[in-house]
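S1.2 Input.
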Amino acid sequence: MGTLDLFRLDGTRALVTGASRGLGRSMALALADAGADIVITGRTQDTLEKTAGEVRARGRQAWTVKADMAVPADCQQAYARVVDEMGPIDILINNVGNREVSMSIESEPLETWQRQMDLNLTSCFLGTKIVGGAMRARSTRGRIINIASISALIVNRGIGGRDYETGKAAVLHFTRCAAADWAPYGITVNAICPGLFMTDINREWNEKRPDVIAEFVKHIPMGRPGEPDEIGPLAVYLASPASQYVTGAAYVIDGGYTVW
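S1.3 Output.
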């Protein structure tokens, strides 16, 4: 087997949450390019079907699950449905998450904090527990990739909603915990920490708060935000046999923002 063959995902099935658009979509399409069949979750059926169509256009199978992963009961039901009806899953990307509010710590309602924790952290726990647990029960090798953020490592300038930094920092340490627990069973657990990528959501932020985006870009050594397609190859690496000796790692992809 040649080196490039180690990056192939033929005969595997991947679940990517929050994949109807943005970074999730880009990673789902990259995995499909490498040969994986894809299950995606999202809140909007139209965008789910659009992304699924793009997967099928690459010659791979695709399934969609509409669910709000910020609601733990719905999230748990969605993961259970995937395992029962669309499994077995070989690759899990816990991608769903977002900074939905910008407010000070003292003004954030408890209900908002809890919803954001459920979206960014509890969804990752439930996916790892249910889908990763099914990998463990099958005694099969598997790949789990948690999408954290550089916000797990630093505090963002000029914006509130510190639930996001807190939740993503917890995702990063949870990744290490799961990696340690499941390494003996051939299941790797790694994290990707993206910086600023110009997803649809960040383009919306740029309309509302162009000062925040401009300030962020000013501190990126490469001088630009990332494009969503640039994250796909890293996801393929972590999902593939090429990364079989990598676990508990966190890969920063931010154009150099965090080196300063």
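S1.4 Remarks. Residues 110-137 form the longest helix (28 residues).
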